[in-house]
Amino acid sequence: MTEYLFAPAAIPAAPIQGEATLFPINRIFCVGRNYEAHAREMGVEVDREAPFYFTKSSSAYVPSGATVAYPPATENYHYEMELVVAIGKPAFRIARDQALDVVYGYACGLDMTRRDLQLVARAKQRPWDIGKDFEESAILSDIVPASVCGHPSSGALELRVNGQTRQSTDLDLLIWSIPELIAHLSTLYHLQPGDLIYTGTPEGVGAVLPGDRVEGSIAAVGSIALTIGDPA
């Protein structure tokens, strides 16, 4: 029997709506600049030749309803509300018209961001890792099976901070659709069950502070909530 030097970390796993079983999280892919208005507010142009991605560690997962500590090394901590795709079957070089066949379900997600660190990295043409991939930065609601909610291509997405609406859009404004994202991403990776795709955020991103309450919703998918705690 294999013995480890220390106990390995538990596998991050998200609740599935209406199920007793959990969805084990493998990898987290995030799509950048997938709403034109958000790209404009960030001062960049949309690249329409192909989607682009960054990643978060699966250990960054936090369930909806949690309180997370205000993260270290930042003075500009942002929310980004997103539709999340949960992959349920392997896919490699899958055709766009077959891409939805590998989707297990959908969820609401918050891509929490140390914006000041991200922008410094962007200006120096460095990776975004320290601005995007840090502890408690990938918030996720319960996953809703596609057999329940279908495959949403339109519908309201909204985020509120302390009851005030900050982000409001429709999923039909995604530049790259869910089938297009899966098909393209599967040319770069062998997608596996447990992979998550955060599909991008609309305009209206902004900073939060300790004590703030963040709440979001996506039509047919559900809702998400997060409380910002004191610095760790």
UniProtKB/TrEMBL annotation:
Pfam families: FAA_hydrolase. Residues 28-227 form the Fumarylacetoacetase-like C-terminal domain. Keywords: Hydrolase, Metal-binding. One of its GO terms (molecular function) is metal ion binding. It comes from the Bacteria. This is FAA hydrolase family protein. It comes from Azospirillum cavernae. The lineage of its organism: Bacteria, Pseudomonadati, Pseudomonadota, Alphaproteobacteria, Rhodospirillales.
